[in-house]
Specification:
By secondary structure, this protein is of the alpha+beta class. It folds into 2 domains: 180 residues, 3-Layer(aba) Sandwich (D-Maltodextrin-Binding Protein, domain 2); 132 residues, 3-Layer(aba) Sandwich (D-Maltodextrin-Binding Protein, domain 2). Helices cover 35% and strands 17% of the residues. The chain is built from 14 helices and 14 strands. The strands form 4 sheets. Strands 4, 5, 6, 7, 10, 11, 12 and 13 form an 8-stranded mixed beta sheet that branches. Strands 1-14 form a two-stranded antiparallel sheet. The protein is globular and about 70 Å long.
């Protein structure tokens, strides 16, 4: 059954519990530092001791973090400057699958992954519960602390308002005038695959054949094209919103009310992290109010956003700039995702090419 979250508030993707504040623990612990511990209190006692341990390691290795994706460029630079830790950025364009497949060779400390990839690789992660743990929605975190959502978004339609009218639904894209692109190949790109699945939603239930049929119809009409030639692009709302922010007259973004497909990216620490204290400090930073607001500055929807809004720590000015939410998102279950991938793999090449 498709997972539904509580009603979205303002620009927040899904509501989260209102738990303990992520402020630093009170200092005073004299116990030995345990860099592989599953929480700040257990391993370091105070936030200051975590920072000291991470600074002694001096570096953090990340993989698959494009600097123009959800504001990661500013996030990485802020972390490095704030704590004096070098961030080694490897294969920024790597997908979640590739990040996991190359982990033995590249030796990253941390991962940013799609939820389904994280679930399948849970054994590769070191449990660690950040201080903002209770603020995170239960349905997008591993109870043991292996992985947990940092940010999310909705699948959206970006369009040139000078070329086409605002589409009210994915079905509208079949009308004359729309030259449509996906964000990649749905056989290889999760963003493109999610676009097909968003176009397939019937209520809460995905019908992959509907999505494939829409893009097959566009292909036959000569209106399924590459992003550079398109006046309409189906991708995550933070991608379309960032483009619209650069030129609001030439690009708009909408999330169809009848297809509120959502998705999360989760964070995890590698069991084999070469810099385990720096990895834990990175997670604390990403899930701090500062880190979550930096994700939102990249037009992503912070996972702790609901709790931050209630405490007055959310950047509400930036939140107001996010595309209007159509309501609670539909989150595909792992079985639904697997079934969709099987169908697309079987039918895409012969129906769309």
């Amino acid at each position: 059954m498709t997972v539904r979250t509580c009603a979205a508030v303002a620009a927040i993707l899904a509501s989260a519990g209102c738990g303990a504040s992520p402020s630093a623990e009170k200092p005073g612990s004299d116990s030995p530092v345990k860099v592989h511990a599953a929480s700040l209190k257990e391993g370091f006692g105070t936030f200051e001791r975590l920072v000291e341990a991470a600074q002694k390691e001096g570096a953090l290795t990340v993989v698959g973090l494009p600097r123009d994706w959800v504001n990661y460029g500013e996030i990485i630079d802020t972390f490095a400057d704030k704590y004096g830790i070098e961030v080694k950025q490897l294969e920024p364009g790597a997908s979640s699958r590739r990040a996991l497949d190359t982990a033995a060779r590249l030796k990253p400390d941390v991962f940013d992954l799609t939820l389904e990839e994280a679930v399948g690789a849970a054994g590769a992660f070191a449990p660690y519960k950040v201080q903002g743990w209770l603020d995170l929605p239960d349905h997008v975190k591993d109870p043991a602390g292996g992985w947990y959502a940092a940010y999310g978004g909705y699948m959206s339609i970006g369009y040139d308002p000078g070329a086409v009218p605002a589409p009210a639904s994915f079905a509208d894209l079949a009308k004359p005038g729309y030259k449509v692109a996906l964000d990649g190949d749905p056989l290889r790109s999760m963003a493109a695959f999610s676009g097909v699945m968003a176009a397939s939603l019937q209520g809460d239930s995905p019908q992959p054949q509907t999505g494939v049929a829409l893009f097959a119809k566009l292909k036959q009409a000569g209106r399924f094209t590459a992003p550079a030639a398109a006046n309409t692009v189906v991708t995550w709302d933070h991608v379309n919103a960032a483009r619209a922010a650069r030129d609001s007259a030439a690009w708009k973004v909408t999330i169809p009310r009848d297809a509120p497909l959502g998705g999360y990216h989760v964070q995890a620490i590698s069991k084999a992290a070469p810099h385990p204290a720096a990895a834990r400090l990175w997670q604390e930073f990403l899930f701090s109010d500062e880190g979550q607001n930096l994700f939102q500055k990249g037009y992503a929807r912070p996972a702790r956003g609901e709790a931050m809004l209630m405490r007055g720590t959310l950047d509400t000015e930036q939140a107001a700039k996010l595309p209007k939410s159509p309501g609670p998102p539909v989150l595909l279950t792992i079985p639904q995702t697997d079934a969709g991938k099987s169908y697309v793999k079987k039918e895409w090449a012969k129906s769309v090419g």
